[in-house]
Amino acid sequence: MHAVHSLPIRVYYEDTDAGGIVYHASYLRFAERGRTEMLRDAGFEHAGILKTQGIAFTVISMRIDFKSPARLDDLLIVKTSMKEVKGASMEMEQRIFRGETLLVDMAVKIACIDKNGKAARLPEAVRDLFKAA
Questions:
Q1: Which of 15, 17, 41, 105 is catalytic?
Q2: Which of 25, 79, 106, 116 lies 20 to 30 Å from 63 when distance is taken between CA atoms?
Q3: Which residue, among 60, 96, 70, has the nearest Cα to 11 in the 3D structure?
Q4: Which conformational region is residue 43 in: left (phi greater than 0), alpha (psi within -120 to 50 degrees), or beta?
Q5: CA distances (Å), 26 to each of 9, 69, 77, in order?
Q6: For the ranges 16-20, 38-42, 67-71, 103-107, which has the lowest average pLDDT?
């Protein structure tokens, strides 16, 4: 797995406000897609992990700094990297760019939970993969 996962995203009309500027909540969806695709590219899918391991991931904290707006039809790149892996949680950095311009900077903490919503240890394969990255 690469240390930084990149996901291109095109800004659609549904992502914007009346002025054609990306609505702030849309960046949360872009970031979620980045995290999901990073996991998928590493060989894990949310549905598969829930079915085989009985665990899921949930965001427990997020810091977002908005630097510059994106607009309708912009091509963005969501870059996701692992900062720290613990027994039951992971901390990631997500940055959204338009070309070389940083638009949004996020710090995200993800917890691993079981089917009942209780904290659970990360599967060893997931923990080892992300620690290596």
A1: 17
A2: 116
A3: 70
A4: left
A5: 11, 12, 14
A6: 38-42
What is the second-level CATH architecture of the domain 4-132? Answer: Roll (3.10)
Residue 123: which of 112, 132, 115 has the closest Cα? 112
Domain positions in the chain are: 4-132
Please state the rounded mean pLDDT for residues 109-130: 87
Q: Amino acid identity, residue 15?
A: D
Q: Report residue 43 as tokens.
A: 């060989």
What does residue 44 show for φ and ψ, rounded to 5 degrees?
-125, 140
- Residue 105 designated active-site: no
Q: Which pLDDT tens digit goes with each residue over 31-68?
A: 999 999 998 888 888 788 888 888 899 999 999 999 99
Cβ-contact 74, 11 below 8 angstroms? yes
Give the 3-state secondary structure percentages of the chain, helix then strand then coil, rounded to 5: 30, 45, 25
Identify the bridge partners of residue 17 per DSSP, sorted by sequence position: none
pTM recorded for the entire structure: 0.90
